């Protein structure tokens, strides 16, 4: 029977089903012959009398600080508790904890005492004080040497538990003793003998033989050198030696984290104050005579130095980076980034990221001053862009990091504005003049033809990064990016990437255009219409066929935005130039909604009196809610013809004096044209008997300044009108087929289940509506459609 020194209270259940307190004692376990099994035994701490003898029942849950049930034979249960308030008061007034003498034979008792003290804050406090006052840790470490010499494995296992428990006491004063130069290696030695492992670890061997301390610049201060050694070893104990703390132990190591943190702060401060050290460091970094291996060590040291600085308080970090700036860290980085060694460049990139994240304005100021003295090719920011473009990593890990840094540098949100100057204006003017051409070079080089000249995965990834940065500029910069896009015809070159075999790149190009359209800027809109820049998008939409994918949804969303926001110029441009290609798309109402918008615009232009009629109807409505103008217009134009002819439109009494003929005349004309168009469509539908065939290939010839063909080959067979599947554009017999007397004659030839649409010269049989549409375009830009 072993006394575990665990204090408990014992309660008995009386006849009234109430718990009676039987007293406090120490619980242990042991085999009891009378009960024929292992039993819980509680002896009173006052006189050692037996308070409880209960056979352990496998079906009973025994849990600390919980009343858990009872032994049916004795109606007694036990509750493992910490000290009561009364006992806690007694403990506070009682003298400190008395430790057993530090002897080999009492190591087990010491280990049990440490383990039993950890759950109670008061007992932890007393144990820590006792360990401090008696110099107990050094005595334990002397026993460690004795145990190792005697190969006393059991004693070494006890010492492991003791030292681990001392760590969990979370006391800085104890850590100061344990991490001193004379004790730290013995502490690590104790932690090698984990009872859970069959063989001890070899941490001391690693620290003394494998791990080597390199002084890239000689450190003359012995205190600084000792602090660096200590920090490395304590960090090693935390990361490698101590077992992973449980959920309950995590907070018990907070002082260990703090010890490492403050050590790093001290090291940074001491190095920062040593001006000779930093001067030598930067001098050797930029010296061409420094060999590659030495330079790599210097850069790695500087990188670790900057990483340590992240532990500093804001004001100390300010002083740290100001010191580095005064020492010339940015010119030094410029030299390092121009070298061929990829490892050195990678470390220099990490250092640069620390500087940009901390103070982007400092970097901006440096590169603008530099531009006054050097050519564009050797500017620091252009070196960063070139490294992004030339990243050899197949996954472009470095390029992604550099793109993030560039994005931070061109972000107006972190730019300063003072009374004398505006950083945003100055830096963006500099960036677009000296750097933007370097950033867009790979994009312009790859889009000289109608499709990307290089379409491998790595090139596509790089162009996607460039497009992401350009999209960010469109969103956050104003006239700078607008002038650049329009003057350099950037959007047309970007839309070449819509033909890429990589869907993510095509979507990046589409996202770029969508961001431009989202600004609703008429300068951009006129540029898009003048260059017919919806053509690549429509072509990609048709080539996508009936597939319901991200490309399909993104293109439809862009046109839906134009419809919902009622961007009149783009609506007219899309309908006048691309309606024939899009009219058969009926699985969404987007394109028909655009057509309706267009017709409404035409009606308003042709008949200004419609606006007055619309205002009359709006004034008459009794309920004014959040319905949009679009809903009101659709309600008006969808009014039954018979109601219109009967003159049953309701007007307010104040408007009854208006001339009914003046009001109804433009509406009657509109309805007559609508009926004429419907009758023509019905006539074509009766004559066309191609329904049920395989979806034909669609060929659309755009006759404009640049003779461009849009083709779409549907790869799947869809019956017209099949639910949930996009209809194949140009399906014969579908609603909206071309009327018989259109401006062009379409000859339909059938071969192998495919229908080809071939253009012939214009006839003289143009109807009035088509003449009106064509008159709105310049002769050189007229688009001729066949369906």
List the helices and strands and how they pair.
Blueprint (H helix, E strand, L loop, with lengths): L1 E12 L5 E14 L4 E8 L5 E6 L20 E5 L4 H9 L13 H11 L3 H13 L2 H15 L2 H16 L3 H7 L5 H7 L12 H8 L11 H20 L12 H20 L1 H12 L5 H18 L4 H14 L1 H9 L4 H17 L1 H12 L8 H10 L7 H13 L13 H12 L1 H10 L11 H20 L2 H10 L1 H6 L7 H16 L3 H9 L4 H10 L5 H16 L2 H15 L7 H17 L2 H12 L8 H9 L3 H5 L14 H28 L10 E5 L5 E5 L34 E5 L2 E5 L9 H8 L12
Antiparallel strand pairs: 1-2, 1-5, 2-3, 3-4, 6-7, 8-9
Helix pairs in contact: 2-5, 4-5, 9-10, 12-15, 14-15, 14-17, 15-16, 15-18, 16-19, 17-18, 18-21, 21-24, 24-27, 27-29, 28-29
Descriptive notes:
It is a single chain. The protein is built from 34 helices and 9 strands. It is α+β, with helices and mostly antiparallel strands. The longest helix is centred in the C-terminal third of the chain and has 28 residues, at 660-687. A hairpin with a 2-residue loop joins strand 8 (747-751) and strand 9. It has a 5-stranded antiparallel sheet. The chain has a two-stranded antiparallel ribbon with strand order 6-7. A two-stranded antiparallel ribbon has the order 8-9. Helix 24 (503-518) runs parallel beside helix 27 (550-565). 55% of the residues lie in helices and 8% in strands.
């Amino acid at each position: 029977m072993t006394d575990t020194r665990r204090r408990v209270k014992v309660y008995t259940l009386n006849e009234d089903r109430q718990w009676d307190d039987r007293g406090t004692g120490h619980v242990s376990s042991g085999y009891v012959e009378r009960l024929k099994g292992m039993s819980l035994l509680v002896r009173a701490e006052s006189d050692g009398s037996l308070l409880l003898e209960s056979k352990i029942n496998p079906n009973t849950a025994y849990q600390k600080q919980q009343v858990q049930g009872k032994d049916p034979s004795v109606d007694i249960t036990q509750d493992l508790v910490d000290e009561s308030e009364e006992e806690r008061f007694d403990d506070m007034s009682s003298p400190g904890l008395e430790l057993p003498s530090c002897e080999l034979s009492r190591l087990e008792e010491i280990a049990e005492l440490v383990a039993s003290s950890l759950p109670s804050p008061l007992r932890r406090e007393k144990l820590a004080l006792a360990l401090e006052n008696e110099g107990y840790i050094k005595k334990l470490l002397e026993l460690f040497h004795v145990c190792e010499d005697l190969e006393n494995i059991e004693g070494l296992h006890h010492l492991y538990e003791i030292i681990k428990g001392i760590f969990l006491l979370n006391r800085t004063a104890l850590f100061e003793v344990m991490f001193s130069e004379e004790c730290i290696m013995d502490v690590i030695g104790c932690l090698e003998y984990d009872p859970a492992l069959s063989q001890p670890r070899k941490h001391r061997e690693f620290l003394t033989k494998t791990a080597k301390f390199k002084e890239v610049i000689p450190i003359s201060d012995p205190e600084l050198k000792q602090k660096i050694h200590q920090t490395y070893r304590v960090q090693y104990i935390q990361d490698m030696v101590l077992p992973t703390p449980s959920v309950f132990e995590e907070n018990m190591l907070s002082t260990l984290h703090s010890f490492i943190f403050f050590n790093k702060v001290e090291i940074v401060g001491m190095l920062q104050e040593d001006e000779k050290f930093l001067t030598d460091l930067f001098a050797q970094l930029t010296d061409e005579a420094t060999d590659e291996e030495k330079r790599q060590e210097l850069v790695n040291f500087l990188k670790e130095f900057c990483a340590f600085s992240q532990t500093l308080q804001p004001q100390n970090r300010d002083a740290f980076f100001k010191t580095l700036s005064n020492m010339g860290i940015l010119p030094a980085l410029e030299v390092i980034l121009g070298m061929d060694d990829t490892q050195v460049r990678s470390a220099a990139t990490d250092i640069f990221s620390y500087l940009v994240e901390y103070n982007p304005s400092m970097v901006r100021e440096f590169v603008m001053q530099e531009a006054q003295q050097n050519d564009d090719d050797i500017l620091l920011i252009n070196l960063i862009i070139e490294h992004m473009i030339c990243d050899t990593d197949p996954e472009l890990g470095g390029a992604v990091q550099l793109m993030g840094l560039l994005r931070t540098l061109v972000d107006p949100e972190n730019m300063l504005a003072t009374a004398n100057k505006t950083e945003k204006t100055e830096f963006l003017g500099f960036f677009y003049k000296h750097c933007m051409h370097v950033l867009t070079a790979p994009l312009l080089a790859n889009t000289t033809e109608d499709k990307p000249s290089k379409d491998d995965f790595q090139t596509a990834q790089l162009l996607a990064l460039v497009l992401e940065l350009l999209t960010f500029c469109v969103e956050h910069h104003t006239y700078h990016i607008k002038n650049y896009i329009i003057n350099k015809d950037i959007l047309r070159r970007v839309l070449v990437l819509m033909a890429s075999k990589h869907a993510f790149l095509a979507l990046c190009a589409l996202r770029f255009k969508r961001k431009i359209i989202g600004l609703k800027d008429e300068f951009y809109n006129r540029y898009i219409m003048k260059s017919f820049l919806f053509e690549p998008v429509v072509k990609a939409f048709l080539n996508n066929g009936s597939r319901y994918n991200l490309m399909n949804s993104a293109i439809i969303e862009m046109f839906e935005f134009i419809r919902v926001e009622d961007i009149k110029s783009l609506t007219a441009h899309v309908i006048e130039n691309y309606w024939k290609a899009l009219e058969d798309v009926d699985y969404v109402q987007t394109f028909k909604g655009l057509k309706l918008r267009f017709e409404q615009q035409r009606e308003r232009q042709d008949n200004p009196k419609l606006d007055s009629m619309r205002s009359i109807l709006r004034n008459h409505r009794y309920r004014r809610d959040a319905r949009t103008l679009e809903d009101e217009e659709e309600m008006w134009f969808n009014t039954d013809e018979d109601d219109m002819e009967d003159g049953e439109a309701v007007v307010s009494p104040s408007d009854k004096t208006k001339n009914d003929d003046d009001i109804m005349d433009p509406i009657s004309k509109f309805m007559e044209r609508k009926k004429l168009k419907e009758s023509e469509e019905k006539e074509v539908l009766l004559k066309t008997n191609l329904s049920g065939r395989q979806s034909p290939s669609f060929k659309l010839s755009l006759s404009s300044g640049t003779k461009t063909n849009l083709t779409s080959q549907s790869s799947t067979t869809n019956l017209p009108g099949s639910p949930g599947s996009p209809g194949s554009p140009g399906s014969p017999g579908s609603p909206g087929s071309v009327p018989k007397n259109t401006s062009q004659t379409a000859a339909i030839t059938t071969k192998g289940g495919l229908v080809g649409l071939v253009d012939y010269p214009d006839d003289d049989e143009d109807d009035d509506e088509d003449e009106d549409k064509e008159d709105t375009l310049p002769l050189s830009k007229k688009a001729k459609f066949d369906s």
